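This part of the workshop introduces the protein records we will be handling. A record pairs a protein's sequence with a compact description of its fold. As an example, a complete record with its sequence and its structure tokens follows.

_____
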Amino acid sequence: MKYLSAACIVALLSLTACSGGTESNSDSEEKTTLTVFAAASLTEVFADVAEEFSAVEPDVDVRFSFAGSSDLVAQISEGAPADVIATADESTMDTLAGDDLLTGEPSVFASNTLTLAVPNGNPENIESSQDLPGTDLVVCAPQVPCGAATQKWAQLNDVGLDPVSEENSVTDVLGKVSAGQADAGIVYVTDMARAGGDVDQVELDGADAVINKYPAATVDASENKDDADAFVNFLQSKEAARLLEGAGFTTAE
């Protein structure tokens, strides 16, 4: 009888363990995965934003896809699954709005301006845009928000650009400068904040006349619209503003 009792106890413990494992799996299955497409310049700060958002919405797991805004828009237009999109300018977002691929009006949550990144020590002694002719300059491609802003800046300031390379994201521009493959690159001020001392900054004269506004919106094809709306709204919160400003952005307020 003692042996049978012990066996029963072991069996009961086993069943309890199995039951506990099943409950844990059930809990994990209830968690919603929210896919956010975001401009490359938001890479670091959005990781912090997601952490703060998860504290408010613990049942939502935020996952990101970072790239140039025009690439993200093209992916969504072709049917790529996404719940939220955040671009680095309003005109790129307007493409999706015009095709009725968004739910509601996009909301601006931050803004950014341009600056010059040069290799450590500034070997070409670049002090302003007047020193750019004759140097190996890297910029974003015109279809990318930072590239469109660069073109607008050049026109407003009557600066002739002759870049050796046009990249599909501002991250790629920064990478070429930090690797010593370019004498200078036109990037966002926020890229300098996240460069970690790999490059030096030179103020870009007249940059304050060109400001990129960052909008976010819920994708119409999303199967998690309530959670997507919650994330878009969270970008307007004081918690998100604190993180964005700490990364060098100017918030919508």
User: Anything to note?
Assistant: Residues 21 and 47 are 30 Å apart (CA to CA).
